[in-house]
Protein: Putative ABC-type transport system, periplasmic component/surface lipoprotein
Amino acid sequence: MTGVLALTACAKDSGDNSAAGDGGEGNGECVTAAAPPRAEASSSEREAAEDVDASDLKVGLAFDVGGRGDASFNDAAAAGVDKAVEDMGVGDTTESTAAGTESEDAKQQRLRQMAEQGYDPIIAVGFAYADALNAVAPKYPDTHFAIVDDDSVDQPNVTPLVFAEEEGSFLAGVAAVYKSENCHVGFVGGVNTPLIQKFEAGFVQGAKAVSDKVKIEVDYLTPAGDISGFNDPGKGNVVAKAQIDKGADVLYHAAGASGKGVFEAAKAGGALAIGVDSDQYEQKTVADVKDVIMTSMLKRVDVAVYDYIRAVAEDDLDSLPERFDLSVDGVAYSTSGGKVDDITDVLDGYKAQIVAGEIEVSPTP
Structure:
């Protein structure tokens, strides 16, 4: 790999793009930037919390739409709780899932019911719970609450769990270009909100960082306020097919359960796809289309939820990072399926540059 990268850099420096990037299955003509220096090997293995006793905790998990089994965001949160049960012996858990069109009163009721039943901590999965949590948390000052993807709730008993989605998506954009045969890639967002725009922003910046020739399609399934875009595989399929028909051959989705439709369109259209949040290659609910999933942008909601439960058990919330970014493996990329094995040095090189501050990734398109 070192030799390949060296030859690649030489080819680019000489202006010969015929070998540029050597993107594995791709033809390499799309990559126009020299590969970054190879990153030094580092160990980022996380220690399990077997020594932490959480048997007194009763954890409540308030899912966003899609719930457990969405093969994405909610499943990642569930995995964090499941691991906490296994490692720390959490005493009891409960979970409840939001409906696509439910009212704020319904969200508040879900949180209140968990608090009344003695669940502590209670984890709200998704920014859609912000208003409800802001109303409920003050009424239960002795209960610990956390909210994923929102830092607007200013209550002393509420902990935000937020991520640098743009950093992980940057690496997804790099991978997409290296694997594109057509120098044409696409992004499918679930709902057009500032949060999902962070995924778009990073993906586009990553793609453009390695190619000044790449064409990028960007589409959202629903506008802000209509969260059905996170749970509509049919619409995901239609939008993804349209991008493939235009020539895109690698699609990255940030669309929750709608991503299954993106994968199905990719399989039917001979394209590749990039998953999101969880390692979607390993998700049973998309097993029939996993062969098109070249990698996933791992948004480690499982890590954040697990670390939060541990921090509550140890009464040490100050130990949590302000933001789960590349430097703490709060975002990452997956290698399941082996389709990016030949470009991991490239991806790790860009990761190292982002962590070192040599590349700054904007969270806005």
Remarks:
- The first strand starts at residue 58 and ends at 63.
- The chain has two domains: 58-163+303-319, 165-299+335-355.
